Amino acid sequence: MKIICVGRNYAAHAKELGNDIPDEPVIFMKPKSALLQSHTPFYYPEFTNELHYECELVIRVSKNGKYIQERHAGNYYNAVTVGIDFTARDIQNDLISKGLPWEKSKAFDNSAAVGKFIDFTPDINKKNINFSLSKNKEIVQQGNSGSMIFGIDSIVSHISNYFSLNIGDLIFTGTPAGVDECVVGDELEAYIDKQLLLKLDIK
Fold this sequence. Notes:
By secondary structure, the protein is of the alpha+beta class. The chain has helices spanning 11-16, 89-97, 103-106, 152-160; strands at 3-7, 26-30, 51-53, 55-61, 77-85, 87-88, 112-114, 118-119, 130-135, 138-144, 170-172, 180-181, 187-192, 195-201. β9 and β10 (138-144) form a beta hairpin.
């Protein structure tokens, strides 16, 4: 199992971080050890002083594939949820300023929290999925899949040109605007529509 992530996939988020709007998906990866296991506490990493939350839609790959055409991409995933891509922003900014890779800021242990999956059914419009994140009961991020620069099928097709997709792989599809810092004691809750799918406390 691997975790594939898409960066800068919402224009407003790219702008809030001072990044250019990409002309193709920005891809990075997290190792299996980055997945926060269900019912496992999330502990604030000791190496950062600026931990940010990034709420995203996450899709689950259900079929092995390579060089997938966009029009067939929907056959290769079967479920969606919300996840949090935790980012050590101070580490990331320092590495970027030095022109260095920034896996240490994104791919550390337990940096990928994933909620309960919802199976895709015909009544789910993958181009109109609303999701949100609350911090201490206050909504801090809201997004809709229709606002993605690159849609889900486009992402799946693009990724498959470079990496074989395997059953169980997870794809984080990018975060909308509103990313910010979280601290010890914060409670994070992530939703699709009004359905709570992920809840964790920062310890």
